[in-house]
Specification:
By secondary structure, the chain is mostly helical. It has helices at 3-33, 40-66, 72-98, 102-115, 121-146, 152-174, 182-214, 237-246, 254-272.
């Protein structure tokens, strides 16, 4: 069992799973409080369908990569890692901006589904809400697993552990617990995911440099920045743990290292800066005759 890959998978599963669990918990609690608890089963139908679809999507991605031959394997892996890093970056800032209004927007969507006369609209609502989180998780986990195929079982096991903890948090939220400071939770897990996404991005650049080398192109910055293999190898011990979580490389290319550091500094600065206050909409001036 790769402890680093297990930890990385658990963090991904926990961070993404909490978002999906909160969506389901808010919808279920609102149904119960509004006297529509009999429709809760439809929420679960949509949720289970979304989870299964996400699992199939992630499995297909991972299997597809393993069936390709060089240089298409490296090209696909690089593209998948880039997509995973892009999705998680977008997700971080979307959640940072929208978390405060998530409860009200979801309750309004439940009201619309019930008001349209078809309670099965709740299943569609749950499916569409959870599938977005599921696809993000599948992309992220597939990218993480393909970056180190032998560690894929550890990544999957960690993700299941993280999702189980997320389900417990969602259950506690449904039961009315306020012990979890969700704002602080999303902030700190978001910071951790910035470093994980930076590792995915740098590994994507490494794969694309390999593709260029196979094609006979020598990219600027493809030389080795440094070599710490004898001091802290990426294939064993602490180095292997750091590679599994943060994408550490004991002998990175100059371009890979530059992209890694630039991403961490730039995204952390944007993520940690105070959000801009939402200015109230100007009220129309009533002109009296």
């Amino acid at each position: 069992m790769d402890l680093g890959a297990l930890t990385s998978g658990a963090l991904i599963g926990l961070r993404e799973g909490v978002e999906a669990a909160l969506i389901v918990a808010i919808a279920l609690s609102y149904l119960a409080r509004s006297g529509n608890g009999r429709h809760a089963g439809k929420i679960w139908v949509g949720t289970v369908a979304a989870v299964m679809a996400s699992a199939v999507f992630g499995t297909l991605l991972f299997v597809t990569v393993g069936a390709l031959q060089p240089p298409y394997e490296q090209l696909f892996e690089g593209g998948l890692l880039l997509l995973a890093a892009t999705v998680v970056t977008w997700m971080l800032f979307w959640m940072r901006r929208a978390s405060a209004a998530m409860r009200g927007e979801l309750q309004a969507a439940v009201d619309r589904a019930l008001g349209e006369g078809s309670a099965w609209g709740l299943a569609i609502l749950a499916f569409t809400a959870v599938i977005r989180e599921g696809i993000e998780t599948a992309l992220f986990l597939a990218g993480r697993a393909t970056s180190s195929a032998p560690a894929a079982p550890s990544v999957a096991a960690g993700a299941l552990l993280g999702l189980a903890i997320a389900a417990l948090i969602g259950w506690g939220f449904y039961r009315g617990s306020r012990r979890v400071d969700l704002r602080r939770f999303f902030r700190w897990t978001g910071i951790a995911l910035v470093f994980i996404a930076a590792g995915l991005l740098s590994q994507a650049i490494h794969e694309l440099i390999e593709v260029a080398g196979i094609a006979g192109f020598n990219l600027i910055g493809s030389g080795t920045a440094y070599d710490l293999t004898r001091v802290l190898s990426q294939d064993e011990g602490i180095g292997q743990f750091l590679r599994a979580i943060f994408g550490y490389s004991s002998s990175p290319e100059i371009l890979t290292l530059a992209v890694h550091l630039t991403y961490i500094v730039g995204i952390l600065w944007l993520y940690l800066r105070p959000p801009r206050p939402i200015s109230p909409e100007p009220q129309a001036t009533v002109v009296r005759a």
